[in-house]
């Protein structure tokens, strides 16, 4: 394997000059203001070595990457309730598809598409103050990243709340089917706030370390989830983490990973590394174009692709 620091520096330099950078998400107006010129990458290996390049310390909107942490929190509280609401199958559909939810009686395919994540978030806040759900997710993320400064960007949350009509449609449809327990407005507010958490690649890679270590947070030595649950979350990330591009991502990169429309991706090489990349330009399916290219390069050069013999 090449020297990791030079490899990551080389990848970041290639990505910085890439001419084709994808399109920044504009359906959340606040995200449309972010410059696609940026690229950051942080790799933390199992022995604790941390390698960073590019805009590694610039905070960005984690968006759907938050769905990993919401799922961890909900599973810790009541795993049966989670799996009673959402499935574990790749959707093969857009992350905000309405037609699939209707065709399947209001039961979301998996916890990473928008409908599934809204149903999971509802479990965290139902019956409670709507802020309790996002508060629990934020606490978990701060603890895992070892950084109490991580916070919600209120302008992004407001921007999505003002324009999130598709998510409102999904939530109301699930409410009609009894999949959402709390008031729809409160559940959506909690979901928009969790998506609007800002983190840098360094913070995100740190927060993902437990997933490379079979559920153990190396900073505290404590189990965040059991080894079995860590395996299963990685399985869901591999099969569902990139929506209708999950197959293509597995084909090219071969790592469990979760993307967000802010352009971030958290990828896990089990037993080897926690990796965060960020570049705001997206593919048509809503996944970071250069983030994916960077992970493909890294997984190929290191041999971390999970399908390697
Ligand atoms: O609900 C939404 O549409 C956004 N807050 C999150 C979607 C997202 O990040 C999809 N990711 N690639």
Describe this structure in words.
With 309 residues, the chain is an alpha+beta fold. The protein folds into 2 domains: 4-63 and 199-302, Beta-lactamase (3-Layer(aba) Sandwich); 66-197, 3-Layer(aba) Sandwich (Beta-lactamase). The chain contains 13 helices and 10 strands. The chain has a 5-stranded antiparallel β-sheet with strand order 3-2-9-8-7. The longest helix is centred in the first third of the chain and has 20 residues, at 66-85. The relative contact order is 0.19. The mean pLDDT is 96. Bound molecules: 6-diazenyl-5-OXO-L-norleucine (DON). The site of 6-diazenyl-5-OXO-L-norleucine (DON) has 13 residues, from loops.
The gyration radius over C-alpha positions equals 18 Å
Overall residue-averaged pLDDT value:
96
User: Which fold does the CATH topology of the largest domain refer to?
Assistant: Beta-lactamase
In total, how many domains does the architecture comprise?
2
SS strand fraction: 5-15%
Number of helices: 13
For the record, the CATH class of the largest domain is Alpha Beta
**Which consecutive residue ranges, at least 5 long each, have pLDDT under 50?**
none
Q: What is the CA-CA span between the terminal residues?
A: 15 Å
Q: What is the count of β-strands?
A: 10
User: What's the helical proportion of residues?
Assistant: 40-55%
Oligomer: single chain
How are helices and strands ordered from N to C? HEEEEHHHHEHHHEHHHHEEEEH
| CATH homologous superfamily classification of the largest domain | DD-peptidase/beta-lactamase superfamily
Instruction: Identify the strand order in the major beta sheet.
Output: 3-2-9-8-7
General form: globular
- Distinct ligands, ions and cofactors found in the model: 6-diazenyl-5-OXO-L-norleucine
């Amino acid at each position: 394997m090449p020297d990791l620091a030079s490899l990551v520096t080389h990848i970041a330099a290639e990505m910085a000059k890439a001419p084709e950078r994808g399109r920044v998400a504009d359906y959340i107006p606040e995200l449309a203001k972010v410059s696609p010129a940026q690229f950051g990458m942080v790799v933390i290996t199992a022995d604790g070595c941390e390698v960073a390049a590019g805009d590694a310390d610039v905070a960005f909107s984690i968006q759907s990457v938050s769905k990993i942490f919401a799922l961890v929190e909900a599973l810790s509280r009541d795993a049966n309730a989670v799996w009673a609401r959402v499935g574990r199958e790749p959707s093969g559909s857009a992350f905000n598809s309405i037609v699939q939810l209707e065709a399947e009686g209001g039961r979301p395919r998996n916890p990473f598409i928008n409908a599934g994540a809204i149903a999971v978030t509802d479990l965290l806040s139902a019956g409670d103050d709507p802020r309790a759900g996002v508060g629990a997710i934020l606490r978990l993320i701060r603890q895992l990243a070892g950084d109490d400064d991580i916070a919600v960007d209120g302008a992004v949350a407001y921007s999505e709340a003002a324009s999130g009509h598709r998510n409102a449609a999904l939530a109301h449809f699930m409410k009609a089917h009894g999949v959402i327990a709390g008031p729809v407005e409160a559940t959506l507010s909690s979901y928009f706030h969790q998506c609007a958490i800002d983190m840098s690649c360094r913070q995100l890679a740190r927060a993902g370390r437990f997933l490379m270590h079979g559920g153990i947070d190396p900073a505290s030595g404590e189990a965040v989830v059991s080894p079995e649950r860590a395996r299963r979350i990685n399985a869901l990330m591999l099969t569902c983490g990139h929506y209708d591009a999950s197959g293509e991502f597995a084909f090219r990169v071969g790592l469990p990973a979760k993307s967000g429309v802010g352009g971030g991706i958290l990828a896990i090489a089990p037993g080897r590394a926690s990796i965060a990349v960020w570049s705001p330009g997206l593919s048509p399916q809503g996944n970071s174009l250069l983030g994916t290219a960077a992970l493909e390069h890294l997984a190929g050069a290191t041999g971390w692709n999970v399908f390697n013999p």
